[in-house]
Amino acid sequence: MNEPIPGDPYRVLGLRPDASDVAIREAYLKLVQQHPPEREPETFAAIREAYERIRDLDRRTRYRLFGDGRWDTVEALVEELVCQTQRRRPPLEALLGTLRPPS
Amino acid sequence: MPGQAVQSQPVRSRAQAHSLLQKGQIDEALRLMRERGQRSVNAENRELDLAILRQAADALLDRNQAIDELLATADAVGDASPTWQRSRAEWLARAGRLDEACKLLAHLADPNDPVRLTHALVDQSIRSRSAVHLPREYHSAHQGILKAFQHYERGEDEQAREALQAINLSSPFLDWKVFLRGMIAFANGDSAKAIENWQRLAPHRLAYQLAAPFRLSIDRNYKSSLSDAEQGQLRKRLERLTDEKLINDLRLMQRFLSSPDTLGLAFTLLEDIYPHLLRLVPEWIPRLRRFVEHSLVQQGGWNYLARLQQLLGPSPDDPHQNKLKAQIAEISGDLEKANQHWGQYEAWLASSPPGWPPDLLQRARAIVLFQIASNGNDLIQNLTKSSLHSALRDPLRRVVRDKFLTMVQTLKRVLELAPDWDEPVLRLVEILSGLQALPEARTVVEGYLSRHPEHFGLTRVIASLCDAHREFEAGRSYWLKCLKLQPLDRHVQQRAAEAVLRGVRLKLRSLPVEALEQALAEHRPLLEEALRPELLTTRAILAARRQDPQACRSLSDEAIRLPNERSAAAYRLMAEATWAGLPPAMRNPIAQQFQALLDIPPTPGEATALIRSLRQYIHSGLDYRGLKTHEKLLRAQVARCITHPADVDELAALGWLLQDARYWKELRLLALHGQKNFPTHPLFFYHEAAAMHARGLNSPRLRRLLDKAWALWQRLPAESQTPRLRQKLEHLRAEVCGLDLLFDNFIFSHSEESDE
Q: Is the pLDDT of residue B156 over 50?
């Protein structure tokens, strides 16, 4: 798994929104084995946080009902945008342009 | 301007040169720096000059322009230090004047210089996309790199790799090959491979600089090697690859969303940027919606709901915005309106909208209904706090009762939908107990426990309910279960011990001695720990029933000798002897002993033990003949106990017991005694106030007592401020002062009318 995208616990755990308690727990255990805290503390923390938000029916339902608008910020979106753009193969011209001072 | 610091000429010209460079006026910038005509003595300023010249060099070389003016300026403002020489040499190399560059550095005799200069030349050729200054043998590699870039940009990874094939390990273009391989891996999500490649890049090369921001986002070791400032700069570079205006607008929108006065501006921006977001990150739109909705809830954005709906369309999970409206209403305190919308939202959920798994749907309905019940509870609290009717009692009671009944119905629906959820059970039981519907409360809890027998909280609730309902046998069984679930809980130990002992006491007359002694033996450690004095007296009575006067006497004496148990043990012996129906021959000496011990005024500690023993019998339904008489007798001991020298803790313990027992007359007596002996302790002023209030004596003295208690409380050291007293004091003040305020307002408004 590459870096988890912040904000959506289902995406972090690689699950569909209708995943069951069992599936969620299995996904969580598999991921923490792949990304142990001593080696990848930030990824582990993100996985753990995602699990805590949807690990049982009550939490999943509350997440669905009330979402995480209060934790989300525009900076998360900016990071997402930047992340998307990075992977979109910026041309050499654009890459070199980042070295020039902003106009 | 007067007062402003005067900038020196070099500072001004440096700033102006920088500004000219920003505008692309390189020649003018260089001329200005030369005209300054002096080399700065300050090393830091010389570094600034060098930085400006480097910028100028980049600008000139990227346009393939001549660098003679640049070199002349460097001579004017720079020096002959290795840093400056290497910079000049690098510029020469990048301009294709490699031999001149090497000659310039020959005196430094650094064997790496020629290689570095070649690298600078090669990097410049990629930077300018021109091989004009490159030696012929490098042209094909140069072409290969540019071609590979083109393939990479088009997603033609195989072709890109092919184009890079010819570049070998000794080529000065190797870094570019490695860089591109890393970029291909990165684009394909293979961060490990990307890092593996980029780790090989030389820090002085251009490729290293280009890779840096991407590497920051995936390579933790690299990230931790950078300062916060360096990381910030690299992030900014990455953002420039994205639409900068969009990013700035997003940040501005967030600011506007954080205030009710600028919500309109936020929406205008949102309407502007929404199409871009839809194109770039369509999967983010639901999060954007939640983020905006959250802001509307926080800012009370009623007026923007339609606009939100128009822009983002109906939310699949809240198409009529009922949930959103309910939340906005809650934040603004309009709970009736909130419940209205929650009700509509629940009805929509009940229609089984698509996209909801059945278990999630059911739970969602339960959560929404529970929210309605919670709001209902808050509405009742507000009603009882704010209404004048709280002084008039009856009309409010009817209104409140009706609201509670509605809550009961709602909570029952919650339990139907979510039978495994314990919070609604607890809330429902609380309300049913308050409505004195104890059998129904018990049914609810038993229903839940039949599915969740290990639930400690509810087991405790039902144990208390059974006790309250005087179903002691059932209560005992539940208390013992609580003890099994939480063996170290002191309160549970106490209640379980009381339940066991109560069970034995109630059957003192009816069951054989052996059975009763067996019942005690089964729980001996528990009883010894929690109720040793009581255990001794009950065992003494059992010994008497067993016709063992010696054992009876021995146990009685042991009980009486315990601290503060002198009269309490004697009382219990007498009470249980009566209850057990012991023959007069056995009962009379016990009664006489009791009377003799009672002739001596008890200490406050002894009075506490007496009252506590009495209350145990009253609560247990151990309604022996003479109980009422003894109650009067024991209550009278309170007046006698205060003749003893006072200990504040003993008086406090007795005070709380009298308050719990609602012995107001005795409490007031004790309180007055406490005030006299401990005039700085708030407890006794509180006790007197509580006693007065309970008896409806709402005179000005009551208010004064409370004010005094509060003032003394605040002067107590922190470690003496017990939570119990604080809570009770605050509660009583709220009750008393609330009434006063209501009456003041009532009187005031009526006196205004009469003035008219």
A: yes
CA–CA distance, B435 with B445 (Å, rounded to integer) = 16
pLDDT tens sequence across B5-45: 455 666 677 788 878 887 878 888 888 888 776 677 777 77
B148-156: long-range pairs with CB below 8 Å, 24+:
B148/B177, B148/B180, B149/A91, B149/A92, B149/B180, B152/A89, B152/B180, B152/B183, B152/B184, B152/B187, B153/A89, B153/A91, B153/A92, B155/A89, B155/B187
Q: Closest Cα of chain B to A13: distance in Å?
A: 16
CB contact under 8 A, B247 and A64: no
Q: Is A17 helix (H, G, I), strand (E, B) or coil?
A: coil
The pTM assigned to this predicted structure is 0.69
Nearby residues of B406 by Cβ (< 8 Å), 6 or more positions away: B376
Does pLDDT of A8 surpass 70? yes
Of A61, A73, A92, nearest to B360 by CB-CB distance is: A61
Q: Which H, E and C letters describe B314-334, residue by residue? A: CECCECCCHHHHHHHHHHCCC
Q: Is pLDDT of B541 > 90?
A: yes
Structure tokens at B12: 């001004």
Rounded CA-CA distance B403/B395 in Å is: 13
Candidate from B90-94, B103-107, B354-358, B559-563 with smallest mean pLDDT: B103-107
Tell me the per-residue pLDDT of B202-257, one tens digit each, with 9 for 90 and over. Answer: 998 999 999 999 999 888 889 989 998 999 888 888 877 777 788 888 889 989 99
What tokens appear for B124 in the block? Answer: 């410049």
Say how far apart CA B637 and CA B419 lie, in whole Å. Answer: 52
pLDDT over 60 (residue B102): yes
Identify whether the C-beta of residue B475 lies closer than 8 Å to the C-beta of residue B466: yes
Residue B549 and residue B114: Cα distance in Å, rounded? 115
pLDDT of residue B667: 95
Buried b (16+ CB within 10 A) or exposed e, B291-320: bbbbbbbbbebeebeebbbeebeebebbee
Question: Six-digit token pair at A54?
Answer: 């949807």
Task: Label residue B438 exposed, middle or buried (CB < 10 Å: 0-12, 13-18, 19+).
Answer: middle
How is residue B88 written in tokens? 């000049």
Q: Which of A64, A72, A102 sits opposite B317 (nearest CB)?
A: A64
* B285 CB within 8 Å of a chain A CB: no
Please give the full DSSP string across A37-91, using - where no structure is assigned. Answer: TTT-HHHHHHHHHHHHHHSSHHHHHHHHHHTTTTT--HHHHHHHHHHHHHTT---
Q: To the nearest 10°, the Cα dihedral for B8, B14, B18, B19?
A: 30
Subunit contact A96:B210, Cβ cutoff 8 A: yes
Q: Is the pLDDT confidence value at B51 over 90?
A: no
Determine contact, residues B188/B154, Cβ cutoff 8 Å: no
Give A-chain residues touching B317 at CB under 8 angstroms: 64-65
Q: Flag whether the ipTM exceeds 0.85.
A: no
Q: Rounded distance, CA B285 to CA B277, Å? A: 8
The residues with which B318 forms a beta bridge, in sequence order, are B315
Residue B752 scores a pLDDT above 70 = no
Helix, strand, coil content of chain B in percent (nearest 5): 80, 0, 20
Give the dihedral of Cα atoms B74, B78, B81, B87; nearest 10 deg.
-30
Q: Which of residues 47-66 of A touch B (CB under 8 A)?
A: 57-58, 60-62, 64-65
Q: What is the pLDDT of residue B348?
A: 97
Q: What are the phi and psi torsion angles at B546 (to 5°)?
A: -80, 0
**For residue B744, is pLDDT > 80?**
no
CA angle B747, B707, B647 (to 5 degrees): 145
